[in-house]
Amino acid sequence: MVKVTIDTQEYMVDESGTILDAARSNGIDIPTLCHDEQLEPFGSCWLCVVEVEGERRPLVPACATKIREGMVITTKSELILNARRLCLELLLSDHYGDCLPPCQAACPAGVRVKDYIDLIRDGKYQEAVEVIKENNPLPAVCGRVCVRPCELACRRNLVDEPVAIDFLKRFVADLEMGDSLQSTVYSPQSMDGKRVALVGAGPASLSCAYYLAGMGYGCTIFEALPEAGGMLRYGIPEYRLPKDVLDKEIASICGHGVEIRCNTALGRDFSIDSLMNDGFEAVFVGIGAHGSYRLGVDNDGSDGVLSAVDFLRDMGLNKEIKLKGRVAVIGGGNSAIDAARTSLRLGADEVMLVYRRSRAEMPANEIEINEAEHEGIKYHFLTAPVRVIAENNRVQGIECIKMELGEPDASGRRAPVPVQGSEFTIDVETVIAAIGQFPETACLAGEQDVQLGRGKTIVVANNMAVGRAGVFAAGDAVSGASTAIEAIAGGKRAALAIDQYLRGEVSSEKLLKEFNVSKGSLDEVDRGEFEGIEKQARVKMPELEITERLKGFDEVELGLSQTDASLEADRCLKCGCNAVDKCYLRSYGIEYGVSLDKFKDGKVHHYLIDNSNPAILRDPNKCIRCGRCVRICLEIKGIGALGFVNRGFETTIEPTFGKPLAETGCDSCGKCAASCPTGALEFSQV
Amino acid sequence: MGCKCADKQDKLLTILSEYQGKSGGLIPVLQKVQNVYGYLSEDVMLKIADGLEIKPSVVYGVATFYTQFRFSPVGEHIIRACHGTACYVSGAENITQVMVDTLGVEPGGTTIDMKFTLDTVACLGCCGLAPVVMVDNDVYGRLNEARVEEILAPYW
Amino acid sequence: MQKARIIVGLGSCGIASGGRKVYEQLQQGIASRGLDLTLEETGCIGMCYNEVLVDVVIAAGTTTYKQVTPEMADRILDEHIVEGRIIQEWTVTEEDEKCLNRQQRIVLRNCGKISPESIDEYIEQGGYRAIERVAKEMSPEMVIDEITRSGLRGRGGAGFPTGVKWGFANKSAGDKKYFICNADEGDPGAFMDRSVLEGDPHSVIEGMLIGGYAIGANHGYIYVRAEYPLAIKRLKIAIEQAKARGFIGQNIFESGFSFELEIKEGAGAFVCGEETALIASIEGSRGMPRLRPPFPAISGLYGKPTNINNVETLANIPWIIFNGAGKYASFGTEKSKGTKVFALAGKIQRGGLVEVPMGMSLREVIFDIGGGTSGKHEFKAVQLGGPSGGCIPSSLLDTPVDYDSISQTGAIMGSGGMVVMDNTTCMVDIARFFLNFTQNESCGKCTFCRIGTRRMLEILERIVAGKGVDGDIELLEELAENIRRTSLCGLGQTAPNPVLTTLKYFRDEYEAHIKQRRCSAKACKELISFAIIDERCKGCGLCIKVCPTGAITGEKKKLHVLDADKCVRCGQCVAKCRLEAIIRVDRW
Predict the structure, then answer these.
(1) Count: domains in chain C
(2) Is A634 close to B58, i.e. CB distance below 8 A?
(3) DSSP codes of every residue in B83-111
């Protein structure tokens, strides 16, 4: 035994070992990627650098430096941490892969899409829903209304069409929901009886309450309107999201121990102060964005000019609305389409949609745009209203002007520019404005330390906290009118932050975006990888006949059959890295706070993935050349199926002559995969 | 013209028997075998692995490490354009470019008629005569763009 | 009376300059004239700029002819040999002689004087007398002591005291030990080892014998680059001759000391200049350096104690034994004893090999001996130490050449490559050149060297292409410092030096490239364009002929016009124009 000093502490350690051995035997962690205890030190990754007093070199590799009596070792210093971080950044700069499946990375809520699709394929529906609910407590709702960023990112786009992720989610959520209103009644573990108040019963609050309740907090949601659901109920029409589906899902959340009090409005019936006085220790503000912009042209206040928000809310409130004649909806978002399709169902003779940019720029979902067209909505693209023509304060028509697309504006979209002298008139009896929404913040007028920003949105910090201690916000109230999944994601983030706050912890990294190495957008990925994949058409969603649809508000999309769902689940390419949970490159990358774009313009190697061996998947794109596999295969197994090839930046680890692994002497023992610190060598997932 | 394959095969076996059981023989064997075949094919490397009782992956790893070894047939003459420091500052790149234009082949490539293989090398150690080009074992120094044709002429 | 001799310099430089043809022409001339004289070949004397060199030795004395062509052979035979009249206008000038006289030739003592293929000529110069004395009169410890006292330091680059190194290997226990000569001279810009092997191979062999005796090794390897075919050939001849005389083999000089010597041809890997990589290569593996300790003196080739010295170091050994450590130590400075051979190349008037006492200033070497820059352009920097070294600016020309003073500049002595650059050389581009070299030559083992040098190269590439961005210099520095600290071997540890030294002395050039997209040397193609100066152009049409893209047009004797859109900026027109009518200008 010898005496050494590690980070100012003295230890007696075995003299035959290395610095790494000495540190580890005393519970001091030194990161390493190339070291494997079965093998002699190799010293290739240089992640394990430490400082040793009096040493000729400023940094030495701990894995390969023999311990000596009296050594004074520092394992953490600015110099060391910077070197380790740069080491990881360099390795990651030539690491081509997707940590997370792109669908999951694209989902604002980070739903583990690949995993639940896997479970659906295997018929494990209950488990699939549980996976979804880890991040999204409203799967049946989202399965109907989600804008599906996951499908835009789906790598299957490079083969044929994206996997129908949303349909699958709906399929499994519906099935699991079944007839039972509350699947399991959940009795919360008391978090010392701590209670949280949530203002507004939209998706943000529902999500926030669900996760807080799951953590054991008592949650009460206060809703101004008669029923819960927020924009899901008062903004989305019945034919897209039947109220009974929404009811069931809200009931399921209530079953987790969430109380909802309707017809109770902030600023009228209570204030944040009063909530705090009533014993709520944190308050979540999820008031949505229920205000809407006026058209801003002459006569925009005439009878017959409506806002889409009001129009759709009235529908949600079951008010009787009659429309006849011709209707013009102004705007290009989902609300505009909802208003247009609703108008058609209410008996309008003709519904047109007026949008100042072209079809390609429409923010609404493509499916929605197409469905509306099928149902008979007429589009006027590159058209903007100039004034409302009114007689006796009653709409007669609308004067429009043709637009053309100019230079890109701040949003990156090409700005529409009026074409002089192209004015024309459309005769209509109703004009519905759907040109933007904002939070109605009058209810916050008396509140201190709630700051409003652009578009009247509530300003929050990274952890969703507003200026006042214990008050958090998320959803449309923070982002401005956005999507359900964004609100759900924000609600969960706020729940985590509220938990931390109530535990007295400072906000942690958990709240930041998940670490993810990505192959890039669909334009950027290597197409070769997808060339050999057999095409298989995406499942079609069974739909109500057009004539049936227009008779009322029956749900248009009828849901997938079990057979279709299985087939569709089988289309999933299972992107993402199987080693994501055990990858040291990733866990160290997170620990050392690396930047993933420091060397973003540099060359990245792309190799073909070798799945020739049924037991071991070899993805050289993820190899960091640590040489563990080479040494294990040669020195321990005596086989030598893998070897170093080439040199310099072009160094690779390959089976002999670059052949597939199956054509070497590999006996599939799996020692290499077990040792690989990344996902370059993995056990194949059957 | 008769096939020389058998002849080459004999030479290969002779070389292998010379180094069998000797440590450190792999690189000299690769060098000698390459002299016989002009390059190292997979088949030949497997025979070497077999003959020296070394794993094929090791043979391949060693062969790909050193720039001397080639894995495809080479031209009758090998041109090595020096891109060492002295040659570089004296315009080696321009001379290589003229050769690329003249031969119609990029560095590392071989002309279609298998006459020339063009390579660039780190330093030939003839810095005093920069810029320098070596054709087979002959060194040509103090070159300029205009002299490229002249030095290649004897080899056509 | 001794026969007249004609000696043709047939080192690689001599051959490259047409030496063989001169030799053949002389051979024919001698035969046809029926002259009774000997025609011999020798290695390089170092005046590469004067090749082909031919010495005529007659009773009256020795005359050296320079830049000899085959056409000159007959006249030399007729006038000098037959008539005894020296052709003054062809002989080396006083200036040339002066350069030789300023040198102190220990390593190069025989180069260009004796026939490298004749062991007798080597012996005539006192060859193999040192090993004889060692074998007969000295104990290994005495030899080590002598070398230690001489102050000789390793000439391969790192400058470790040779005697101390031998002492380690000597003390290291082992049934078998190896002595290796590192002749894998890989630094672009260095060629002294080649010249010594081509010009005086026996001196290296004798050095190895002495070293082998001193450390107790009976087996030696010379690891020599395959790119040096002539050196290999002459070494082989020399080894056979030495074996035949009993200098190599069993019981040398009946001392009981035996030594076998083999040549190992390198297969093309700069990193094999690194001791542990070289050992891996001899063992038949990829030239990947190994962790040290254990040092080769303890566990080297095949796990046995091993000593490695480079060619120049070994060529010094017989001289030191023969002349004594004191004599050797009388040259040089306090910490850097003896002489150093430099390979002067690049934009230098008298390029070639020079051997000077340590401590001479860079200015003396480059200007007094080398004659300054070759063209009309001003001296800008001298690159020392190749890819591991750095660029030293003119303000530091008075730096003495010794290990420590050179290290202080940020460059290293290295193996002695000295590439002179004038103000047409872009310092950022030179850094890019070296990084391109190292990232290619990295063995690929260590993360920082394998990927880091590549990323440095990419940043330098974008800077010379005018696409550098703010923060690039800082990123280069961050990479450079960390690569230095975190690489296993010397290649990685020194790879950033060319960038660090140019950043230190020529930072303004980097900034101009990034901020103004301007290259002051007008060397970076993306940052320049070409222009014809109207007053100078006489319309000769030469430029039109060489232009590969037809960018220059114009009738004979009329002003030519250059179309910047078609121009690919190859510079051939500038090289061709005799009137300097085409110039490089800033493009942005």
Answers:
(1) 5
(2) yes
(3) -SHHHHHTTHHHHHHHHHHHHT--TT-B-
